[in-house]
Specification:
This protein has about 525 residues and is an alpha+beta fold. It is built from 16 helices and 27 strands. The structure holds one RNA strand of 75 nucleotides.
Amino acid sequence: MLTPVPPADKSMEEIVSLCKRRGFVYPASEIYGGIRGFWDYGPLGTALKNNIRDWWWHQMVDCPPIGPDGDPVNILGLDSAIIQNPKAWEASGHVGGFNDPMVDCKESKGRYREDHVSVLVPTDGQGLSYAFVDDRSAAEKKIKRDAKRSVEEYTLTELPAIDVAAYPSIVAPEVKTAGTLTEPRAFNLMLDTYPGPIRDEDAKAYLRPETAQGIFLNYKNVLDTMRVKLPFGIAQIGKSFRNEVTPRNFIFRSREFEQMEMEWFCPPEEALKWYDFWKHERMKWWRSLGVAESNLIFRDHADDELAHYSKACVDVEYLYPFTAPNYGELEGVAHRGEFDLTQHTTHSKTKLDYFDQDLQVRLQKEGVDKDEIKKRSRYTPNVIEPASGLTRAVLVLLCEAFTPTPDRKGSDYVMQFKPKFAPVKAGIFPVVNKDGMPEIAQKLFRELRETMPVETDVKQSIGKRYARMDEIGTPFCIAVDGDSVTHQTVTVRDRDTTEQVTIGLDKVKAYLNEKLDA
RNA sequence: GCGGGUGUAGCUCAGUGGUAGAGCGUCACGUUGCCAACGUGAAUGUCGAGAGUUCGAAUCUCUUCACCCGCUCCA
């Protein structure tokens, strides 16, 4: 068995190079020089991604876990459009909140949101102005010390109200000299597009920055058409797009990526229970991918870190080679309260509440007052959202599986994917390309490929063929030898131990199926 | 966005102004009896892109693009 390698000792450069060399991930539009923040998934990367995606869907939608009270949970699938009515993004807060113009300071290298910067401007218009973000006293000190004037002679103005032409006379926060601020630049976090044959500003629409909103937009449809009761979930997997300021770290932060999100709708008083439930279910799921426990942690968000919509949030984090010894974000489980449904109710003028008939009946039995029942049985559900990156999951499995093998003669790397997620499940090789062996291998190959991705190869030495399979993480290699001809047996080689077992030719399929199911 | 680094074959890299290279990988043929064996042969490059200097540029200059590291940002 191979010794596990700590993520900090793995080289991203080697991982990226192996991904290219073996067809996992290519730089997007490489022949044109690439494009920042975009990546293409090659044949093996696509297979790996699909395997992870299918497992998520299987565990989330088709065969979800039993809930905290011992009842089966109900989650429905959805595939909403990438482009929605732009008003949806105003309601969600993405249009208003993330188009903030930023100013840079050439001196301090600081970057500030324009609307966060305040400026003390001399009321008489003579001399320099002094800017600050939080620390007004620092600006006042500069006034006394450098301008040698009284603070009373200045008027407080917000930076957005100041003309760019006046910037040269502004002393930026944290610096002493004036004129170091650049003009404000808009950072559009959403990519936009113009549906329709004519480019018309009024037709501007956005590529979704998250799949979640498509779920909220269809909450009422699902409720009206699918005979569901609270609590229930809606799950969706799909592409999202964000204008990341700095795409970095291979496929970790890219401008086009794929998400797996589930919105869990529940009565407000149950929200914390479900938050806790999904938090731990999600961690279980990540472990089920074959990720070592020690490489995964929870990180609870501090209150001041919480997004505008969120009441509580925890990240599942992974020990990426490029963040080590720190962990980096992988999945967020957020308690979104009723924020989203309320926002969309307000903006769309469509009721997105829930009439709880079970509660109505229960309250009637308890003899609760009629008006009280009416009031309490109609409410806006709370939402718990486990949201993870599918493309980040691919990255995690690539990093986790990547194992340099200096001890293994000739072989450089083994990708230790759990068999369930390996792009190729088995290689079928005649030990030599003669004496009836290739024919048997070909027959076995044709039989296995009916149900699973397998490869066969008759060229070159057997060792070389094993090593090639190791590098793409194929868990099993089946060698057809002389005994296959005389006794109808083959040997199955384990990728991680290189140990071999001899089994009957007719047992191969069952043997592999058992291992792949684990 | 800032600072630093890098860009030459699929991968790793050598090549500092004068004919485009190596190792590995890939392919073909031979060999083969379980771990990148061996032999012979072959293909593969607009030297990231564009412009300039020069008789001549992978090499010098400028611009640009991409990647890496550190800041910054990250609903």
